Structures are given as C-alpha cells and as structure tokens.
Amino acid sequence: MTERRRAHRYELFMPLQVMAGTTNFQSAHLRDISTHGVYFVSEQSISPGTSLDVTFTLPQERGRPESVIVRGSGRTIRLDRLPGESRPLFGVAAAINRFDFVQPGKRAA
Measuring CA to CA, how many Å separate 47 from each of 36, 91, 107? Predict the structure, then answer.
C-alpha cells in the first residue's frame, strides 16, 4: 500500500473535546496529529463528512511558560470500529482546515 498522507503525523496522547455537527461537546482521546488532521478515539460514532470542532490543551513545557489551547475545525473523513474492546470504541480520522492557538486569559484571533 502506498502512503497517502500529505504531512508527517506526531503521536500525541491527551484528552480532546469534540463537537460533531450540532451535538454537544463530547470527550475523546487524541492519538495523533499533523498539520492537516487528527486521529482520535471516541465512544461516539461520527459519520464521514460530518463537520466538527476539536479542542485540546498543550501543557506548559520548557520554552513555553503557559499552557496553550488548540482549536481546530474540519470534517470527519474516516471512521474505524476498534476491535477487541469491551464497549464500542471508534477511531476517527478528521481533516482539519484550520488550527487556532490561544493562551489562556487571552482572546482568540
């Protein structure tokens, strides 16, 4: 199989908030990220083509004294049912059109 990704993916395991379509925010878990998308694990099935917004927080680290809130918007491109789980879990791949970075206490641009 030929690699079709346009950008390198980075593993990033952290909590993620997702708003899909007109539903309320739901909790999920980010698994990897690139400049063009995210892949996360959710207990909710999100159909391909659904518009979504994702939000997560990058913690403080050396060189960055404050945490940073990351917001992205895009659409779901793939849904995988994860095998071997006691309850239904889904892997969701989403193309992200835009990421915004906001330091807590400051307004988004």
Answer: 19, 11, 32
What's the CA gap between 51 and 18, in Å, rounded?
Answer: 10
Average the pLDDT over 38-57 and give the result. 94
Strand partners, 42: 90
CA distance 42 to 7: 23
CATH 3.30.565.10 fits 10-98, yes or no: no
Task: Give the torsion through C-alpha atoms of 19, 20, 23, 26, to 10 deg.
Answer: -50
Return the pLDDT at 32.
Answer: 93
Task: Please give the structure tokens belonging to residue 39.
Answer: 């892949």
Using one digit for the tens of pLDDT, what is the confidence trace for 58-98?
888 777 778 889 999 999 999 999 888 778 899 999 999 99
Model confidence pLDDT, tens digit, residues 10-24: 898 999 999 998 777
| Structure tokens that stand for 88 in this block | 């239904």
For the chain, the first-to-last Cα distance in angstroms comes to 40
